[in-house]
Sequence to fold (142 residues):
Amino acid sequence: MSKQKVLCITLILSLLGTLSAGAHHNPGFYFDMRERVVHTNATTVSYTAINPHGRLIYTMADEDGIVKEWIAELPANNMMRRFGVDGSMIKPGDAITLMGNPGRNGATMLRVTHVLVPSGDVVTFYAPQGSATAEDLQIPAP
Fold:
């Protein structure tokens, strides 16, 4: 095979790899980045601070009172540590309130930006909207 053909094939394969990686790392592919929702009265099922993405699974009742399981995508563990988040901040059974971008097409997924934990602290996972307070999460005052 000529050098030009090898170079051309290499460039095409590199371009295809770049496109798929771009789709995977684009949160707008999975989540509606224009919308921000708050989930109150959620209960933690599990919380895993790992790479390449942390994962928070929680349950929450929908408008009809049916309890559904949700999957929340978190940043990588090293990024969470930069925001001061560690693996012990959220435990199974914790009552939490979450803010983030909802999954597209009705998926029970959330790209979490902030979580109000039982201690009353607001944990920041992504900060595109900046830091948040309990008031920002629409938590009624005690």
Remarks:
- The helical segments are 3-24, 27-30, 77-82.
- The chain has two domains: 1-27, 31-124.
